[in-house]
Amino acid sequence: MSTHSIDHPLQPGDQAPNIVFEAISRDGKIALDDFRGRSPLLIGLFRGLLCPFCRRHIAAMAQLNPALREKGVSSLAVVNTPAERARLYFRHHPISGLHAASDPERTSHRAFGLPLVELTEDETDWPRKVGMDAVKTMRVDRPGELPGPMDPAAGGDLLNKMDGYEITAADQQVRIPGHLQLVGHFLLDRDGVVRWSFTEVEEEGQNMCQALNPEELMSAASRVAH
How far apart are CA 54 and CA 153, in angstroms? Predict the structure, then answer.
């Protein structure tokens, strides 16, 4: 498995690395090279399943999967939750047809240039550090779930309470106190070249915990499918 890391997210035109993961959706391993020469790939790199926004974004990715498959685009969701814990979660929350894999060491996040941000009290140097004072000015909206736009920390706490999500020792195992792993989606063509992306790094943190734009993704998928 590649451990090379870069200090900014991969951009359109960049070659994605080959990474080998422990599969969640089936037995064995899943490698990015499995898709090269066969199909374009949407890869979603998420935090652990203890992140309520990531759980929702994975479910949304599963809902988009049939439409992407019609265009010949495969999808892979990667969580930094240990494989057994993730398998248990998805047994109760199925993501039918979506490839899923575990990366508790965050190898893929580093290789795709998604940083681990230090959480501070009031010092922001995006995307290396972010102050909680800045986080409290950010807004994320989940109509029908949150009472209105809320900052990611408060909104996440409320969603976890609503979900009754029980944080286990396996979840705690991948937590890095005082830090937050940034996440994102990358659309690769058949040659493994990035053609589109949506990450939390851009927009000075305003993308934190936000969902991607489905129309934008499907437009990009139509382009790579030809």
Answer: 13
Residue type at 181? Q
CA distance 226 to 224: 5
**Confidence tier at 4 by pLDDT (50, 70, 90):** low
CB distance 95 to 25 below 8 Å: yes
Q: Given this model, what pLDDT does residue 225 score?
A: 83
pLDDT digits (tens, 9 = 90+) for 34-45: 999 999 999 999
pTM of the shown model: 0.94
pLDDT in tens, 55-65: 999 999 999 99
Spatial separation of the C-alpha atoms in residues 153 and 139, rounded to whole Å: 10
Strands in the chain per DSSP E = 20-23, 29-31, 41-45, 74-79, 99-102, 116-120, 129-131, 179-181, 184-188, 194-199
Domains of the chain plus CATH, in order, are 20-115+180-225 (3.40.30.10)
